[in-house]
């Protein structure tokens, strides 16, 4: 790895602890991430704050072209037929981009991840040969036209039709209603030349469910093609560099071969054909290949949070307010307990999610890699990605806002970068799957697993199986999960004799929260199913419980990942700091739900009452390592760009 | 009251329930508010979403001039000497403005409330005669130059000096250090011609604490005057229409009479003179006159929340997603329990804060009105204003974000107005006093009261006084407070036999939360004081507890106000809806702190476990009244301006 003088981090100086924490958090990808940081052209990486919509789009396109030329854009998209692209490279590149401007990041995601990804994953050799080279070089800018105005999260109900016309061997793409208008589509308003359009495939009068077809949108000079109507969403709450817009199709015809036909196509004889007979399975298989987008968006949100926390914490280590006894020059912001409580638990959570994201990337690299994977592994990857995307993007919104408030009035000035982050990251909670809907998918997958586990036990005649054993079957398949289970086992016998920083106790609490809430949800689901009457209402009422279960699961998975990350850390001093950081994460999570633990007799009130003080104590313990913790987050100081940190 | 055809609400049609709820929530100011709504020139009231910084400033200034001409700008600033302005009119006008564009609102606040307010409250006849007419007509645009770069919330430590020069009978205004630079000052970067500058007054070498002097900044053509250096904060996270900037003074001289000398001035003989001997008391008296700003900003934040919730709730009453049994066209968003839980508790809280804000305005009108008020009333007003400002502006941030997410991708399009609200209202949590710091003031006032109550009991020899009696002395002085106390008394004997919607039980829980946390804070404060050693650290550790006490107090005050509002409502059907709304507010607040109630044995776990279901049930009960509840919030549909609600 060579650092040039042009690299802004060529001279990055870290504290010893900061460097060690960074290696630990970078985990299995420490080397790749170090190279990315050192070679990323970070000069001019941040969009000037006051560009208008058009100028923002210009800037973003130009910047992405520059990055593509430097090898940082098209990662993950193969430029040859049959290639799968390197999912690992895609995820790591995306997060590097997300450490800087999020419009560039998302435009990269639209072009390479979504548009390129659709061609790669849903298309076959001809599509790869014909289009991937143009995708990679950005000569062919494209859209991922899935969402419709009338059907935000409900992909199965898309109204756009893709009708096969045997007379001319063409497909007719049509938007039959205003609700069928494709909406929020990146690259649609201005730059896109082609779109991967999702719609209902109709062959010989029969519907075969959602498929994807490539439809040219504009000619070489950018003029819209006949039958295509484009709308511009214009100004947005953030991501001004993305030209989101609407697309309507009025009986637009394309050759049959434009159908991305890996999972469903039309024979020369004009008959529908698919390697997957079951339409439901086919639908979820097709959507499943797009999991990379969720992995990347969650990781991108996490990077936005890291950047905001880096700015706010570094500021809090410089800024003094109010003199106090023994501190005539004023107290450093980060020496106020209230300020520590604002920022340090969020830093801890950043580490926790970082550990989980590493595991998610690993799982994706496995499932999408060269080696074969099982359908079960694929489904688990989708659940993990959906849940972690939601958790990380909600967290990003919270963290960026906390960082803004922690910087006071200075945080509100665009020159300090937090306001752009705030605006940009907001929509991460909605796109690539609305978080609330994604959490429902997580809970649904858990319930399915749970049911299957019970059925399996029934079949083998083990009717006396304890719920614990069932829980074990559902939850602990990964090595990290097993490690956590072992920790929990040590605390299970006498939980109230453990200390508040006993990892076994944390593990036990996290497991109990998930297990018990899942079991009771399953029970309530069964009664709802039996109750008859308005089935929708019965399930509808379980909505908040469903969200709780999904969150409890994701928290446990995250803690397991953090424990595994510490286990892999070989530097004893960094390890000690990580242990404290992990305790702060775990205890903050327990504290948020301590009413639940009390209600379910998992904790005494005496113990619950002192959690707050213990969190304060952990903050105090981490306070001397605040700078190192920020360095460990892996965003070089020179990339932060906040004026407040300059003088 | 005459409605012209030009008024966009001339034809506003409300449901009967909506009209009744509006009257109830408008409370004592129902008539004034109805007139304001009907006469406010709401055409063009919303800033075009894509204006750049300069165009936003132009638009905002022009719009404010237009409003001023229509009688909606200068409310509250008298144009004659000796006038106090009408505080009631000021507060009501501010909230009407805040129902539309917040840049206009804040520019009005800077010009009339802060700059005009400083002249009015801190100046004497000559200042009033010389400057108030220009303030009122906006011929003299001005700044309120208090905050310094080095001293955000710490006004007592301001470094700017105002030094009396007897040789020339002038005052020399000087910024001795970079930290003394005035920062975030509205009207500074572009429009201001004069500033009310806060600094340390030095007479004959002696410092007399913070005083305020009027300093001309620019000549008639807008050129900066000698010795004045102006900076431009440029682009911000919102409020682009406000030209915030920095001000530095290099030994700028102004005549002695430019000192706003109501509370401290210089005699013709060159000696310092003040009607208030104690410097501390003088400082707080001067700052205290500025309470109107906090009252207005809190109310403005509340209006932003109302606007966002109005948009999101109306959208949720139109938008369908996912078909379900018996609902082939899809389920209305607001029929999802999860969606109800997102929006309805926030609507309930809007009503609660509305009730409290009415009382706050009433208190301000009394203290700042013609009739004399006591120092105690003034101090209570300041505490109330500080706390309610924090509560309402934090809430505004939460509510606007929830509304954005509840509208999904559409919420992110600027044409739907939520993103501008989000950006604009963000800083409300910081300006006019950082919320965290203001909550410390609230807790401090409560502790002082508590201490005085104990001392009074001690003096009268009542050593056996129960804590309850002390609590009573501290907390229940208002008639609303007494009403709540009576309700609590009915539940106190057998709290666990009450229902979850028993107002007496709510009252008891709110009181217990405040009383107990205040008592334990007082106890911890005493030990901290006794502990010796690092006094700062001992108090610092109580920071989170301090915040909890302040919040508990504000919640109780808010509930008391809501109960009083219902008591005043004469429409039995509206009253019933308000009772349910109040229960939803109260129970949501209890639910958030239910760990605390469990830890302190104020609630059984059995009871705690069913609160969530009870909240769901209340949401279900209010669901048919959702539109009426939105109408009651008092923002006419025609003012919302969201494209999403148009077709």
UniProtKB/TrEMBL annotation, chains A, B:
<comment type="similarity">
    <text>Belongs to the acyl-CoA oxidase family.</text>
</comment>
<dbReference type="InterPro" id="IPR006091">
    <property type="entry name" value="Acyl-CoA_Oxase/DH_mid-dom"/>
</dbReference>
<dbReference type="GO" id="GO:0071949">
    <property type="term" value="F:FAD binding"/>
</dbReference>
<keyword id="KW-0274">FAD</keyword>
<dbReference type="Pfam" id="PF01756">
    <property type="entry name" value="ACOX"/>
</dbReference>
<keyword id="KW-0443">Lipid metabolism</keyword>
<dbReference type="GO" id="GO:0033540">
    <property type="term" value="P:fatty acid beta-oxidation using acyl-CoA oxidase"/>
</dbReference>
<dbReference type="GO" id="GO:0003997">
    <property type="term" value="F:acyl-CoA oxidase activity"/>
</dbReference>
<dbReference type="InterPro" id="IPR002655">
    <property type="entry name" value="Acyl-CoA_oxidase_C"/>
</dbReference>
<protein>
    <recommendedName>
        <fullName>acyl-CoA oxidase</fullName>
        <ecNumber>1.3.3.6</ecNumber>
    </recommendedName>
</protein>
<dbReference type="InterPro" id="IPR055060">
    <property type="entry name" value="ACOX_C_alpha1"/>
</dbReference>
<dbReference type="InterPro" id="IPR013786">
    <property type="entry name" value="AcylCoA_DH/ox_N"/>
</dbReference>
<dbReference type="InterPro" id="IPR037069">
    <property type="entry name" value="AcylCoA_DH/ox_N_sf"/>
</dbReference>
<feature type="domain" description="Acyl-CoA dehydrogenase/oxidase N-terminal">
    <location>
        <begin position="45"/>
        <end position="139"/>
    </location>
</feature>
<feature type="domain" description="Acyl-CoA oxidase C-alpha1">
    <location>
        <begin position="288"/>
        <end position="447"/>
    </location>
</feature>
<keyword id="KW-0276">Fatty acid metabolism</keyword>
<dbReference type="GO" id="GO:0005504">
    <property type="term" value="F:fatty acid binding"/>
</dbReference>
<dbReference type="GO" id="GO:0055088">
    <property type="term" value="P:lipid homeostasis"/>
</dbReference>
<feature type="domain" description="Acyl-CoA oxidase C-terminal">
    <location>
        <begin position="509"/>
        <end position="644"/>
    </location>
</feature>
<feature type="domain" description="Acyl-CoA oxidase/dehydrogenase middle">
    <location>
        <begin position="143"/>
        <end position="252"/>
    </location>
</feature>
<dbReference type="InterPro" id="IPR046373">
    <property type="entry name" value="Acyl-CoA_Oxase/DH_mid-dom_sf"/>
</dbReference>
<dbReference type="InterPro" id="IPR036250">
    <property type="entry name" value="AcylCo_DH-like_C"/>
</dbReference>
<keyword id="KW-0576">Peroxisome</keyword>
<dbReference type="InterPro" id="IPR009100">
    <property type="entry name" value="AcylCoA_DH/oxidase_NM_dom_sf"/>
</dbReference>
<dbReference type="Pfam" id="PF22924">
    <property type="entry name" value="ACOX_C_alpha1"/>
</dbReference>
<dbReference type="Pfam" id="PF02770">
    <property type="entry name" value="Acyl-CoA_dh_M"/>
</dbReference>
<dbReference type="InterPro" id="IPR012258">
    <property type="entry name" value="Acyl-CoA_oxidase"/>
</dbReference>
<dbReference type="Pfam" id="PF02771">
    <property type="entry name" value="Acyl-CoA_dh_N"/>
</dbReference>
<keyword id="KW-0560">Oxidoreductase</keyword>
<keyword id="KW-0285">Flavoprotein</keyword>
């Amino acid at each position: 790895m060579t650092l040039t003088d042009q690299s802004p981090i060529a001279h990055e100086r870290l504290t010893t602890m900061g460097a060690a924490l960074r290696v630990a958090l970078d985990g299995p990808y420490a080397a790749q991430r170090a190279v990315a940081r050192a070679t990323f052209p970070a000069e001019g990486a941040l969009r000037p704050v006051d560009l208008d919509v058009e100028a923002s789009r210009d800037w973003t396109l130009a910047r992405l072209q520059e990055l593509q030329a430097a090898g940082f854009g098209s990662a993950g998209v193969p430029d040859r037929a049959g290639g799968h692209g390197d999912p690992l490279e895609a995820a790591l590149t995306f997060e590097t981009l997300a450490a800087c401007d999020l419009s560039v990041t998302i435009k990269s995601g639209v072009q390479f991840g979504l548009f390129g990804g659709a061609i790669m994953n849903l298309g076959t050799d001809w599509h790869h040969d014909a289009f991937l080279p143009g995708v990679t070089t950005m000569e062919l800018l494209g859209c991922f036209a899935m969402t419709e105005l009338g059907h935000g999260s409900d992909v199965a109900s898309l109204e756009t039709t893709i009708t096969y016309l045997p007379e001319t061997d063409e497909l007719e793409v049509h938007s039959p209603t205003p609700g069928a208008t494709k909406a929020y589509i990146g690259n649609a308003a201005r730059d896109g030349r082609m779109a991967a359009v999702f719609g209902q495939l109709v062959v010989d009068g029969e519907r075969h469910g959602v498929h994807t077809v490539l439809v040219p949108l504009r000619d070489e000079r950018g003029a819209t093609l006949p039958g295509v109507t484009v709308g511009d969403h214009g100004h947005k709450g953030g991501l001004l560099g993305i030209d989101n817009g609407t697309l309507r199709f009025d009986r637009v015809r394309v050759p049959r071969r434009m159908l991305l036909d890996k999972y469903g196509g039309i024979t020369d004889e004009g008959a529908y054909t698919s390697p997957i007979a079951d339409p439901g399975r086919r639908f979820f298989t097709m959507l499943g290949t797009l999991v990379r987008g969720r992995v990347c968006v969650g990781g991108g949100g996490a990077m936005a949070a890291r950047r905001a926390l880096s700015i706010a914490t570094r500021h809090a280590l410089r800024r003094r307010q109010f003199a106090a006894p023994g501190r005539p020059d004023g107290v450093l912001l980060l020496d106020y307990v209230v300020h520590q409580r604002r920022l340090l638990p969020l830093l801890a959570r950043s580490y926790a999610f970082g550990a989980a994201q590493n595991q998610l990337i690993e799982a994706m690299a496995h499932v999408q890699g060269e080696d074969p994977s099982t359908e079960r592994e694929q489904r688990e990857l989708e659940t993990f990605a959906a849940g972690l995307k939601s958790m990380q993007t909600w967290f990003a919104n919270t963290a960026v806002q906390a960082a803004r408030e922690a910087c006071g009035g200075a945080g509100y000035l665009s020159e300090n970068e937090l306001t752009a982050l705030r605006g940009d990251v907001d929509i991460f909670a909605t796109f690539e799957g609305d978080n609330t809907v994604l959490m429902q998918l997580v809970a649904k997958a858990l319930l399915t697993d749970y049911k299957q586990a019970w059925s399996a036990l029934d079949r083998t005649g083990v009717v006396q199986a304890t719920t614990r054993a069932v829980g074990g079957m559902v939850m602990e398949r990964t090595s990290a999960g097993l490690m956590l289970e072992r920790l929990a086992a040590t605390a299970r016998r006498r939980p109230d004799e453990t200390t508040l920083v006993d990892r076994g106790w944390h593990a036990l609490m996290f497991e109990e929260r998930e297990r018990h809430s899942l079991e009771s949800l399953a029970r309530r689901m069964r009664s709802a199913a039996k109750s008859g009457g308005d089935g929708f209402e019965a399930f509808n009422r379980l909505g908040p419980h469903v969200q709780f279960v999904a969150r409890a699961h994701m928290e446990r998975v995250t803690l397991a990942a953090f424990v595994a990350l510490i286990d892999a850390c070989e530097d004893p001093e960094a390890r000690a700091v990580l242990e404290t950081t992990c305790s702060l994460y775990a205890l903050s999570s327990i504290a948020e739900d301590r009413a639940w633990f009390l209600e379910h007799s998992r904790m005494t009130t005496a113990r619950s009452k002192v959690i707050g003080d213990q969190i304060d104590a952990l903050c105090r313990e981490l306070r001397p390592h605040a700078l190192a913790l920020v360095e460990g987050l892996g965003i070089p100081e020179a990339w932060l760009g906040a004026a407040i940190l300059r003088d």
